[in-house]
Structure to design on (83 residues):
């Protein structure tokens, strides 16, 4: 498989997010609000304050990016289902 440059990767991920958001919106509009609540539950509200001297590093980058994506998808689904 050829390597993807950053622009192609970003475009493909954005397209996948749009399709996923559309599918989830249809499910929520059909009455499945438990699914959206589950996704929102994946967003970790912790700010890693259990060790105030610790500085987050690359080990938390993927986890943080995933939580941000969960939040963004849930927000888009809520906004579209209100329209």
């Amino acid at each position: 498989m050829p390597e993807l440059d950053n622009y192609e990767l970003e475009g493909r991920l954005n397209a996948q997010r749009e399709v996923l958001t559309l599918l989830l919106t249809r499910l929520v509009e059909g009455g499945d609000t438990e699914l959206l609540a589950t996704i929102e539950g994946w967003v970790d509200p912790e700010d890693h304050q259990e060790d105030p001297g610790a500085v987050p590093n690359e080990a938390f980058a993927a986890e943080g990016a995933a939580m941000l994506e969960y939040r963004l998808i849930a927000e888009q689904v809520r906004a579209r289902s209100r329209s």
Q: What stands out?
A: The two ends are 40 Å apart (CA to CA). The CA atoms of residues 7 and 13 lie 10 Å apart.
